[in-house]
């Protein structure tokens, strides 16, 4: 008997330990033969695969089997409010828990803990089991991560229960928290989808000279300009104005203040990398034909001499428009392929070839509108991602302290 560290107000007393086998029974599913079309075609009975356990709250599933498939497979039609647990697999599925809210069948890699409303709240038990994910995986049989859980392991598995009233309160708390996490996750996905679509619609498509979606007040064709009209190659080296605290990692765009480089002579080989500059980062992987450009939007610093650096020629140049244009695969992909060559170590840019390449450019005023739009969109995504991370941290802390 024990008590959790944090409790919902109004509840007290010790929690009791029970084996799952003393609380309920367990059934497992089966898979109808995929060689028999009559077991699957036009089926109406829900059939769940183990991969769908990751959805956690199961309101529907993708699979359907027929009556013939059901009666010739050994699977079972289980009622709503079963706690579902993944039994097998090398990946993350083994030990993953979910709860179903509709009648369904499962495959052989899912165990269903049948509901017993007199002894436990199914939603509470789902959260309890879900919190024991690592413990369940450690109980799996077999070697090298290839083992699995089985009915007997689950029947012997111990859980701690409080009163049904407190179970209900805990279950609803975590369901509400999961709902916030799910809503935030969907919002992030929606914002990213909007960004992806906008990167297509707000830049001219191949063979066109103006975008299909524009801000009010802008019209006409974008002007075709060569990069040599927009940028010049910056070959200015570090004169020791900057030390290791100003080394910029082009890959992640941050100031590396803990660099182990301390040789002044070595730092003199670094290139200046100023606000608005772009730097070409080669690619060591043989799977890619070219590297990429990164727009400097964070401030002045220095980058390794292996990078080609270019500086804008005009002050009629919106920093954030070019950040999104220069990282747009549809715009830059074919250009980079034509302007790069492979060396023994990595892909290198041929600067003179790049400066001859051309691209379509909007007016400065339209650049500012486009840059501001994408910057605000990225800020919204960042805010929601931070919120999601905070919610996950809160849930993790509550799971540790609200269960025994």
What would you note in describing this structure?
- The chain is α+β, with helices and mostly antiparallel strands and 404 residues long.
- The chain has twelve helices and 22 strands.
Quick structural summary:
The chain has 404 residues and is of the alpha+beta class.
Descriptive keywords:
4-stranded antiparallel sheet, 12 helices, 404 residues, alpha+beta, 5-stranded mixed sheet
Taking strands numbered 1, 2, ... along the chain, how are they ordered across the largest sheet? 2-9-6-7-4
The biggest beta sheet is recorded as: 5 strands, mixed
How large is the count of helical segments?
12
Q: Give unreliable regions as ranges.
A: none
Question: Distance between termini?
Answer: 9 Å
Mean pLDDT: 91
Q: How much of the residues is beta strand, in percent? A: 15-25%
The count of β-strands is 22
Radius of gyration: 29 Å
**Shape, please?**
elongated
What class would the helix/strand composition place it in?
alpha+beta
Which range best describes the helical content: under 10%, 10-25%, 25-40%, 40-55%, 55-70% or over 70%? 25-40%
Can you lay out the helices and strands and say which pair or pack?
Layout: E1 16-19, H1 20-23, E2 26-28, E3 45-48, E4 57-58, E5 63-65, H2 67-71, E6 83-86, E7 97-100, E8 105-106, E9 110-113, H3 122-131, H4 133-138, H5 151-156, E10 158-161, H6 164-201, E11 223-226, H7 227-230, E12 231-233, E13 248-249, E14 254-255, H8 264-267, E15 271-273, E16 278-281, E17 292-295, E18 301-303, E19 308-312, H9 319-326, H10 329-339, E20 340-342, E21 347-349, H11 351-356, E22 358-361, H12 364-402
């Amino acid at each position: 008997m024990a008590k959790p560290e944090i409790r919902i107000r109004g509840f007290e007393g010790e929690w009791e330990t029970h084996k799952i086998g003393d609380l309920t029974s367990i059934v497992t599913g089966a898979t109808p033969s995929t060689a028999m079309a009559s077991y699957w075609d036009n089926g109406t009975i829900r059939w769940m695969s183990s991969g769908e356990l990751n959805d956690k709250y199961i309101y529907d599933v993708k699979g359907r089997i027929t009556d013939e498939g059901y009666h010739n497979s050994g699977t079972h039609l289980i009622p709503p409010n079963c706690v579902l647990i993944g039994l097998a697999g090398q990946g993350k599925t083994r030990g993953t828990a979910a709860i179903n809210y509709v009648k369904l069948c499962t495959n052989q890699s899912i165990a269903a803990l049948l509901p017993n409303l007199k002894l436990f709240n199914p939603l509470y038990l789902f959260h309890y089991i879900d919190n024991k994910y690592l413990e369940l995986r450690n109980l799996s049989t077999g070697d090298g991560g290839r083992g699995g859980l089985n009915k007997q392991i689950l029947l012997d598995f111990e859980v701690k229960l409080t009163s049904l009233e407190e179970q209900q309160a805990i279950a609803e708390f975590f369901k509400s928290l999961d709902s916030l996490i799910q809503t935030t996750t969907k919002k992030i996905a929606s914002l990213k989808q909007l960004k992806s679509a906008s990167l297509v619609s707000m830049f001219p498509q191949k063979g066109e000279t103006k975008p299909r979606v524009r801000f009010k007040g802008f019209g006409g064709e974008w002007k075709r300009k060569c990069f040599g009209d927009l940028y010049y190659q910056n070959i200015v080296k570090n004169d020791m104005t900057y030390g290791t605290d100003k080394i910029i990692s082009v890959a992640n765009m941050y100031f590396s203040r803990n660099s182990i480089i301390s040789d002044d002579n070595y730092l003199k080989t670094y290139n200046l990398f100023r606000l608005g500059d772009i730097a070409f980062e080669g690619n060591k992987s043989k799977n890619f034909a070219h590297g990429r450009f990164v727009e400097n939007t964070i401030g002045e610093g220095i980058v390794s001499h292996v990078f080609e650096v270019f500086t804008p020629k005009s002050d009629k140049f919106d920093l954030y428009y070019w950040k999104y244009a220069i990282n747009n695969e549809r715009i830059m992909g074919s250009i980079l392929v034509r302007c790069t060559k492979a060396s023994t170590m990595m892909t290198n840019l041929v600067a003179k070839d790049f400066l001859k390449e051309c691209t379509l450019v909007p007016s400065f005023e339209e650049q500012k509108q486009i840059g501001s739009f994408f910057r605000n969109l990225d800020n919204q995504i960042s805010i929601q991602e931070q919120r999601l991370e905070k919610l996950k941290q809160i849930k993790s802390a509550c799971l540790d302290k609200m269960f025994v």
